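Example record used in the benchmark description.
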Amino acid sequence: MSTIPHYAAWAASSRGTAWKRLGSTDILIGVHPVGDSKSRALVVEIGLNRETDHDASVLARVLEGTMPVIVDRLILALGADAIDPSALLTTREQQVLELLVTGATVRAIATKLNRSPHTVHDHVKSLHRKFNASTRGELVARALGHAVTKPAPPYALPKLQHAVN
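Model output (structure tokens):
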């Protein structure tokens, strides 16, 4: 890692110390644009250890091949447009969502988080709004990055028109 520019500053940063604490001696970074945007990108960091990860070039090729798939999942979950800061989840909403994904009920979540069911329900309503989901299942599916399509309206036969002579 010491070959990257400004290594000393990076190593002293919270991110650098976190990687060192995990035993990483090298770091592999993948960057891929999100959608057509020139101003948004997904950055993936993978910590490597020279003693156990002998072929970083293989990992780099795997990362390069999977980045487009990861970006597609990101777009499915969050949309292709820039994120409005008000759409970001609060810490409490993240906690509620993590428990919803496991199948927990509002009452169970309220008990676990020491909050009233009414407060948790307000968080769930906010999550529905932020994920543009109308059902609990749709909310969980979107949170997990699955594409959710609305059912097509019932098929209606076109009305026949009589020819006028």
